[in-house]
Amino acid sequence: MKNTIYIMIGTLLFALAVTQLGMPNSIAEGGIVGIALLIYYGMGLSPSISTPIIFVLLLSIGVRYLPRHMVYKTIFNVVLFSFFIWVFEGMFAQPMEDTLLAAIFAGIITGIGFGFIYQAGSSVGGTSILARVFNQQLGWDLTGTTLALDAVVVIAGIFIIGPVYTMYTLVTLYIGKVVTDFVLGGFDSKKALNIVSPYSEDISKRITHDLASSATVFYGEGEYMKEQRRVLYIVIHTHKLLQLKRVIKEVDPDAFIVVHNVKDVSGGFISGASF
């Protein structure tokens, strides 16, 4: 039930972004929705009609390469999306004076919608179906192939909506990707750090005292000097990153620090990393 609600909310938001911001301002998309929008701009055929047709064609090619649960969820999603497009198309939409503003907010709303859709394990991309076929038959990388197919759709827009609106489309896609990552990973973002220093024990004590956090200790050996060193690993909230780096530099200005982006953290000690 939870997944169904997520799909409905996400698809509703995506349909609103397409009908209220995308279509009135000649902004396209990636995947089968992007193809449907290009058909709409070129021939005037509503995406509510072309989207399910394109999806059925793709599904007939790649259905045997997809997990059953994904097929069912995606069919439901595409039908729901087409229905919402049919409901909202032309209802309120008006071209905006600032197309860039339309592209930005289309990306924000689309990103939130995709976040809900992906949380439910569904998709409206369509090109992922072909990517799975190429992966199974030719061994092509799944993620890279999906990206390449989406890129082909976007580039095709140059010949239909022109280079300027294609660039607006790229703005929408980029912002949508960033917002989707926020929705999936949470707004309470975190960073992971590897710290190598001969003063690692002092750094660890300062981390515990000043930041009320903890660190995990690994032992590594440098290839050049063949010296074994303690390596501290810590996960912290992003807003504490500058404070942590300041603490480290106060103890050892020459400490070797590597910072990683963290998608998701669960369990353990919330403020730091204690395993």
Q: What is the overall silhouette? A: elongated
Percentage of helical residues? 55-70%
Largest sheet: 4 strands, antiparallel
Number of helices: 10
The figure for the number of domains is: 2
**Runs with pLDDT <50, length 5+?**
270-275
Pfam families: DUF2179 (PF10035), YitT_membrane (PF02588)
Keywords: Cell membrane, Membrane, Transmembrane, Transmembrane helix
Subcellular location: Cell membrane
Main location: membrane
Provide tags for this entry.
275 residues, alpha+beta, Alpha-Beta Plaits, four-stranded antiparallel sheet, elongated, transmembrane helix
Structural write-up:
The chain is an alpha+beta fold. It has 2 domains: about 1-185, no CATH class; about 190-260, 2-Layer Sandwich (Alpha-Beta Plaits), CATH 3.30.70. The chain is about 60% helix and about 10% strand. Strands 2-3-1-4 form a 4-stranded antiparallel β-sheet, with helices on one face. α3 (about 45-60) packs antiparallel against α4, α3 (about 45-60) runs parallel beside α6 and α5 (about 100-120) packs parallel to α8. The longest helix has 24 residues, at about 160-185. Keywords: Cell membrane, Membrane, Transmembrane, Transmembrane helix. It comes from Salibacterium salarium. It holds the Pfam family DUF2179. Its main location: membrane. InterPro entries: DUF2179, N-reg_PII/ATP_PRibTrfase_C, UPF0750_membrane, YitT.
